[in-house]
Task: inverse folding
């Protein structure tokens, strides 16, 4: 079951999994030409003046992502937007880290994982996410954040 979204989200964590540090260079026909800094900069900018702070973190290491998720729990982060990249399809540990928190999250994928290899069709996170966005390129991150910011106004 997805966690309920609080109306008082003051801070959002954007988490990026392995190889997303290479966005812009890595398979641009699938993942586009923008760098991770471009995307993070846009998200941070979008939140200016909304009363919501955005922090971004990328790691190629499963344990570091789990440590960051646990830290979000201690820091009172209100919402997580996560592209777990390849760990989507393998990581029970990242699922458990998110399931153990009361922080709701949206799962984002740049590519449409359902039109790709069959091993990408399985996600360990989707059934506990508020929602998933995939196949809309890097705009998926913006749409996820827009959802969180809109919720704050309802
Ligand atoms: C991805 C899709 C994953 O299957 C892949 O391993 C990635 C990126 C995406 O954003 O489309 O690294 O999460």
Result:
């Amino acid at each position: 079951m997805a966690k309920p979204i609080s109306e008082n989200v003051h801070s959002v964590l954007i988490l990026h999994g392995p190889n997303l540090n290479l966005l812009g260079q890595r398979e641009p026909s699938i993942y586009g030409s923008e760098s991770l800094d471009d995307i993070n900069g846009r998200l941070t900018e979008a939140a200016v003046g909304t009363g919501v702070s955005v922090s971004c973190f990328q790691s190629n290491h499963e344990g570091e992502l789990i440590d960051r998720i646990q830290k979000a729990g201690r820091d009172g982060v209100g919402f997580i937007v996560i592209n777990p990249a390849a760990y989507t399809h393998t990581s029970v540990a990242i699922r458990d880290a998110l399931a153990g928190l009361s922080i709701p999250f949206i799962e984002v994928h740049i590519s449409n994982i359902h039109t790709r290899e069959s091993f990408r069709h399985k996600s360990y996170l989707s059934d506990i996410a508020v929602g998933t966005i995939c196949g809309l390129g890097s705009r998926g991150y913006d749409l996820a954040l827009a959802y969180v910011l809109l919720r704050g106004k309802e």
Remarks:
- The mean pLDDT is 94.
